[in-house]
Amino acid sequence: MAGGPFASGRASRGGDGLRIALLCYRGNPHCGGQGVYVRHLARELTGLGQRVTVFSGQPYPVLDGGAELVRLPSLDLYREPTPFRTPHPRELTSAVDLLELATMWTGGFPEPRTFSLRARGALQGRRGDFDIVHDDQCLGTGLLGMLADGWPLVASIHHPVSVDRAVDLAHAHSGARRLSLRRWYGFAAMQDRVARRLARLITVSDSSRDDLVRGLGVPEERVRVVPAGVDASLYRPDPGVARVPGRLMTTASADVPLKGLAVLLEALAKLRTERPEAHLVVVGRLRADSPVRVALERFGLQGVVTFVGGESDEQIARRYAEAACAVVPSLYEGFSLPAAEALACGTPLVATTGGALPEVAGNDGEHALLVPPGDPGALAHAIGRVLDDPAFGARLGAAGRRRVCERFSWTATATGTLEVYREVLAEHPGRVARC
User: Fold this and answer.
1) How would you classify residue 83: left for phi > 0, otherwise alpha for psi between -120 and 50, otherwise beta?
2) What is the dihedral of CA 124, 130, 136, 141, to 10 degrees?
3) Helices (H) and strands (E) in the chain, counts
4) Which domains are present in the chain?
5) What's the whole-model pTM score?
6) What does each C-alpha distance from 269 to 31, 289, 308, 377 come to in angstroms?
7) What is the pLDDT of residues 299-351, one digit of tens each?
8) pLDDT tens across 123-151, in order?
9) Inter-CA distances, 45 with 52, 145, 250, Å
10) Most CB atoms within 10 A, among 56, 147, 211, 337?
């Protein structure tokens, strides 16, 4: 490896910081946590003097603060308004393209594997440009190729996909649906296998760390907990915006049972028997075949629930300012950026105890009200307490704001991530002796 990018002779660049290749197979800035995580982590790492290049598939992330974006386009087979589309033959230009299409046609989700293969190819020609590779939640087999190529490698896992798979299977109502889900989640076994091969994994909560150790068999000593952050200068109380009586707000980053939206709809129906002004704004969109549509009809909530999507951070912050209560009804969360954002805005929060939510919101009843996951009656009761006592809600909101400002910032996330990079580089042959 002498003379390569990891040779100690490169340390003469010392003051320039590390050169980081940050991988993101899906970077949607408005749906799901990957795009949010990558955007803020890249900006803060750059602010700490590092040089960050983000390699991403569609949808591409929004980047600021000086990070560079390298586009690694997929076939984009799930894009709206034509999900599961069949591409034109001219679009199929490589074996990876054929693998992506064939996996979709046979019911699987190809993007983690195919993105990792494209990323390995892109990095093979840039061995002198980067000191370390950081993968965000892809965990495709291409990462094993990167290890064989000699790259120091770190991966973030916000929570194991096996949790999503278990919840989806538990909510499947037919054998055909369960078979379809097992095929779709076929990539999870690949991710588990790759995770066990990596020297360091970063996760965002103690809950997720325990799930990685128990569920995936990852040695505990390889896992580092670095919580995600929240931009408390953007997500903040806005005294110029009046709260709308009865307004509930939730964020559904994905239309899946794990997010508990159907449970919240049942709770809302219970609430409205005594509080007819109660209504809900959902930041997110529904699939055409979503079972949530059935729940809306069953509970007679058409016109009471509004779905909005593609909103800017500023618009979402205003939504929190308007809400009398924010709700995170998830059955499980590895961290929950929406919970942290609601707290930062000083909006009274009702959430479940699913996964890491007590770590984010506190479990003492002083910063948020927590209820068991999957219990619409308990959810309705807690929301009712907030709606019926605005002074109590204001105290919760103020305490939640203090908690977030003290515990969760993107600068702290970047600083903790840098410490993990240093660990990996210290153990890597011919490591870079800088930063």
Assistant:
1) beta
2) 20
3) 16, 13
4) 8-229+410-427 (3.40.50.2000), 247-407 (3.40.50.2000)
5) 0.91
6) 26, 22, 20, 10
7) 999 999 999 988 899 999 999 999 999 999 999 999 999 999 999 999 999 99
8) 998 989 999 999 999 999 999 999 999 99
9) 7, 26, 30
10) 56
Print the SS3 string covering 365-413: CCCCEEECCCCHHHHHHHHHHHHHCHHHHHHHHHHHHHHHHHHCCHHHH
For 205, the token pair is: 């909560």
Instruction: Determine the Cα–Cα distance for residues 259 and 250; give it in Å rounded to an integer.
Output: 10
Peptide bond preceding 29 in cis form (omega within 30 of 0): no
Residues 6+ away with beta carbon under 8 Å from 328: 250, 251, 336, 338, 339, 342, 349, 350, 351, 352, 357
Q: Beta strand 223-225 with 247-251: parallel, antiparallel or unpaired?
A: unpaired
Exposure of 319 by Cβ count < 10 A (0-12 exposed, 13-18 middle, 19+ buried)? buried
Q: Which run of H or E residues covers position 269? A: helix 261-272
pLDDT on residue 339? 97
Cα separation of 226 and 208, whole Å? 11
For residue 428, is pLDDT > 90?
Answer: no
* Greatest Cα pair distance in the chain: 74
How many whole angstroms separate alpha carbon 185 and alpha carbon 191?
A: 10
Phi/psi at 402 (5° precision)? -60, -40
Q: What is the pLDDT of residue 31?
A: 66
3-state secondary structure of 182: helix
- Tens digits of residue pLDDT in 41-80: 999 999 999 999 999 999 999 999 899 999 999 999 999 8
Torsions phi, psi for 230 (to 5 deg): -145, 145
Alpha-carbon span 289 to 286, nearest angstrom? 8
CA dist., res. 277 & res. 297, Å (int): 19
